[in-house]
Write a structure and sequence with these properties.
This protein is about 50% helix and about 15% strand. It is built from nine helices and seven strands; from the N terminus they run E-H-E-H-E-H-E-H-E-H-H-E-H-H-H-E. Strands 3-2-1-4-5-6-7 form a seven-stranded parallel β-sheet, with helices on both faces. Helix 1 (about 15-30) links the parallel strand 1 and strand 2. The longest helix has 25 residues, at about 105-130. It is globular and about 50 Å long.
Length: about 250
């Protein structure tokens, strides 16, 4: 991973929010970036166009990560167009909040399907197909540690992702593929703001020692380190990028 100019990175859920910031950052670093999206075609196309206008390399590829066949097809497509894959950033996820007693089966099943099974689908395919010396970055959350009410199922999926991260790092070590997870705290994205009033947002800001919400670019910088030439000795770790909230 010393020359990222010849490296290909897939970023899932990259059409907006943290994923889009990661795609832009990795393209600026020199990676050829695959912008994965599930349904936001216009946003993904706009992101790719923006990356290309600034001299970067990017392509949009549609795939619902909860579908293992779709994930396989995505890797097939990228291998055909780019010759191989070096980096997978498992960023895609959903956050539906409710107390455990009020969480219906549909919400539980969908959260598991995207956050846990979707991440697993990517990890499994990458474990078989990443070129030696590659990098996998999964996404957890600092709610694993905060244990806030209403985050039960969401936090459970992220705790499971952390366990998979530690184990896959040991399994892929002989191939010099590192596996880490990034666990953001509250980040100023659409996903975070959805359903929150200003008083709630202000109280969350006040919880942080640095007195602000995270920005998507804060998280993209951490991913850049983990997949770049200076991150090769970081392996099997969960990086809690949250400004010190937990």
């Amino acid at each position: 991973m010393t020359d990222v100019q010849n490296q290909v990175a897939i970023v899932t859920g990259a059409s907006r929010g943290i994923g889009a910031a990661i795609a832009r950052r990795l393209a600026a670093d020199g990676f050829a970036v695959v912008v994965n999206y599930a349904g936001s075609t216009d946003a993904a196309t706009k992101l790719v166009d923006g990356i290309k206008k600034t001299g970067g390399r990017a392509v949009a590829v549609q795939a619902d990560i909860s579908d293992p066949s779709a994930v396989k097809r995505m890797f097939d497509s990228v291998e055909a167009s780019h010759g191989g894959v070096d980096v997978l950033v498992n960023n895609a996820g959903i956050m539906k909040l409710a107390p455990v007693a009020q969480t219906d089966d549909a919400t539980f099943d969908r959260t598991i399907a995207v956050n846990l099974k979707g991440t697993f689908n990517g990890m499994r395919e990458a474990a078989k197909r990443l070129r030696d010396g590659g990098r996998i970055v999964n996404f957890s959350s600092s709610v694993v540690g905060l244990y806030q009410p209403a985050y039960g199922v969401y936090a459970a999926t992220k705790a499971a992702v952390e366990a998979l991260t530690h184990i896959l790092a040991k399994e892929l070590g002989p191939r010099r593929i590192t596996v880490n997870a990034v666990a953001p705290g509250p980040v100023a994205t659409e996903l975070f703001f959805e359903g929150k009033d200003q008083a709630t947002i202000d109280s969350i800001k006040q919880m942080n020692p640095l007195g602000r919400l995270g920005e998507a670019d804060d998280i993209a910088a951490v991913v850049s380190l983990l997949v770049g030439p200076d991150g090769g000795w970081i392996n099997g770790q969960v990086v809690r990028a949250n400004g010190g909230v937990v």
